[in-house]
Amino acid sequence: MKLSSTRDRARIVSYKEAIFQGLAPDGGLYLPVSYPDLSDLFSRLEGSASFLDVATELSRRLLGDELSGDDVEKLCRTAFPFSPRIVRSENHISILELFHGPTCAFKDFGASFLATSMELFLANESRRAVILTATSGDTGSAVAQAFKGKNLIDVVILYPSGRVSPLQEKQLTAAGGNVHALEVRGSFDDCQRMVKEAFVDPDVNTILPLTSANSINIGRLLPQAFYYVYGRSQYANEQPVRICVPSGNFGNLTAGIIAWKWGLKTEGFIAATNVNDVVPEYLKSSVYTARSSVHTYSNAMDVGDPSNFERILSIFDNDWSSMRKVIEGAAVTDTETVETIGSVWERTGKLLDPHTAVGYCAAKRYLAETEDKSEILVLATAHPAKFSEVVQKSIGSSPELPDRLAAYLDKKKVATMIGNTTGELKSFLIETLK
């Protein structure tokens, strides 16, 4: 598997180089140079393979030139002691539950695979890595859990003060050890900007071997593509399926599009956002207008300038009409989010978190407004207990916390407060990790 930057397709790097660089030297994001046709593999699955089987076979095909067969099996067994689960909900709608990992969020898949990949590559090398990442919620907790205690790796996580749920904050600040949490006086967009600027700062990069663990890093996106393949395999091959993706920074949707480029059979994607709807607006008008993010109940999707949209544009060669044939856009309000959680609970007994509710609402709206008879697979991105305040507002009671979440409540928050300037981040990095 070879990769190149969205801004310079001529410079080719390996998977190993790409994951340790995170952001390309030109400021672009890494994407595969080409996409192997894996439709032969997909057509044979038909629900017969476990998620671990799917992940192992895909990893073997994609990374076989850099990792031995034994290393690929070790990588997948270590990274994925958990699996997605598919739940049939209502007529034409199913849910792919992606919250059965250690932090109860879909980002466990990518973070665990990336952390294990890095540890494998570093095992025989006398060097270290410094993970620098921004989070609007679940990325931070997943990264903290995945990289906690990893040899030769330090982790720095930036998150916006007051804009993550209390439980998310506990998860990303309580890891300790090699994991450093920075509480930023600003928005997620500020955090993301600071991280990007640090990656291209020559002073920082001369001193520290920086890389990222959020969806800037291609090593996060590739394993997320695996669960699209697994989810589609749970339907008959001839069954038309459309996939609805709750979207914020658009890494998850990018992973689905990568799977589609490999030959995944789908009628297309629904990109479901909250009122931070710059991409749905682009899909309507062909005009992209970044703006400051607005705080919503689905806070992990509060992104006003999603970085992964650069990857999507690159995949479609900046062709708006081609993109429109594959991706539908939908924006959902907080009122609709709360109503969806309540109505789905009443009708089906299925409890949704606010991000999954955004996707579910978009799926219901799509079915009501079109004549499409496809099955729609909605990605359930987080356990509802991670957002108990919103769930309680919707149904009048709080969901029960899984044991692996409840364990965080008694842990102590340890975070360093900084302003929203790259200078303050730079000072922390050099003073703390040099």
Could you list some keywords that capture this structure?
19 helices; 5-stranded parallel β-sheet; 434 residues; alpha/beta; Rossmann fold
What does this structure look like?
The protein is α/β, with parallel strands linked by helices. It has a domain of 205 residues: Rossmann fold (3-Layer(aba) Sandwich). The chain has 19 helices and 14 strands. Strands 4-5-13-10-11-12 form a 6-stranded mixed beta sheet, with helices on both faces. Strands 9-6-7-8-14 form a 5-stranded parallel beta sheet, with helices on both faces. A 3-stranded antiparallel beta sheet has the order 2-1-3. Strand 10, helix 11 and strand 11 form a beta-alpha-beta unit. Helix 3 packs across helix 10, helix 4 packs across helix 5 and helix 5 packs across helix 10. The longest helix is centred in the first third of the chain and has 16 residues. The radius of gyration is 20 Å and the shape is globular.
